[in-house]
Amino acid sequence: MLSVLFFMRLTMLKIVKKILKFLNSQSDPVEIAIGVILGLFVALLSPSLFNVIIIFLLALLLNCNFGVFFICAGLFKLITLITDPVGDIIGRFILTRDFLLPLWKAISEIPILTLTSFNNSVIMGNFLIGIFLIPLIWIVTIKSIEFYRKKLMDKVKKFKIVQFLTGADILEGREK
Q1: How far apart are CA 32 and CA 30, in angstroms?
Q2: Under a CB-based contact definition with an 8 Å cutoff, are residues 21 and 156 in contact?
Q3: Sign (positive/negative) of CA torsion 120, 128, 65, 77?
Q4: Rounded distance, CA 72 to CA 13, Å?
Q5: How far is CA 85 from the centre of its chain?
Q6: How far apart are CA 144 and CA 6, in angstroms?
Q7: Residue 38 and residue 174: Cα distance in Å, rounded?
Q8: How far apart are CA 100 and CA 40, in angstroms?
Q9: Cα separation of 82 and 88, whole Å?
């Protein structure tokens, strides 16, 4: 039991270290925001392997920050435990609207689109939740990174734990 807790803490420290690395780097906030959004979509649409492959290819094309992409995919996957029931309700609502039935029928007749599993209510609902969250996540991510880099980065770098996690010389600035 104790080793499990140690492993969990060690894993969390590694995640914090990677997040600090991305925040302190010269990475463009847009690249980081794209990584966050695509990580969200991988988490929301992960029951469909085809969708995950398409999102991964999109991440390659858009030149997103892959570290952020993978970290966010893992973190957002925890959130999908909450969003899946809501996604199911939204997806079922959209998929059962009479006026949209011809659209779903047309989509189901296109072989490549059937691989997306958008006829699954959870995947459809989670996709719509993701689309709804894109502007919010985009703005919050970019503004947070800009705020951190302008106002907090120098203060955060002074903490010994941050210096330890980022590999900075803790004794830097002290007389020898």
Answers
A1: 5
A2: no
A3: negative
A4: 15
A5: 19
A6: 30
A7: 43
A8: 26
A9: 11
pLDDT at 128: 96
Residue at token pair 């002290």: 174
| pLDDT score recorded for residue 8 | 63
pLDDT tens, residue by residue, 114-135: 889 888 999 999 999 999 999 9
> Closest Cα to residue 42, out of 31, 51, 30?
51
CB count within 10 Å of CB 174 equals 7
User: How many CB atoms are located within 10 Å of the residue 90 CB?
Assistant: 20
With tokens 């969200």, the residue in question is 40
Express as a percent the part of the chain with pLDDT over 90: 47
pLDDT-derived band at 4 (thresholds 50, 70, 90) equals low
Give the rounded distance of the alpha carbon of 102 from its chain centre.
33
Which pLDDT score, from 0 to 100, does residue 124 have? Answer: 95
Going from the C-alpha of 21 to that of each of 18, 98, 154, 162, the distances in angstroms are: 5, 50, 14, 10
Asked if 33 contacts 137 with a C-beta cutoff of 8 angstroms, the reply is yes
Are the C-beta atoms of 24 and 157 separated by less than 8 Å?
Answer: yes
Neighbours of 135 (CB within 10 A): 10
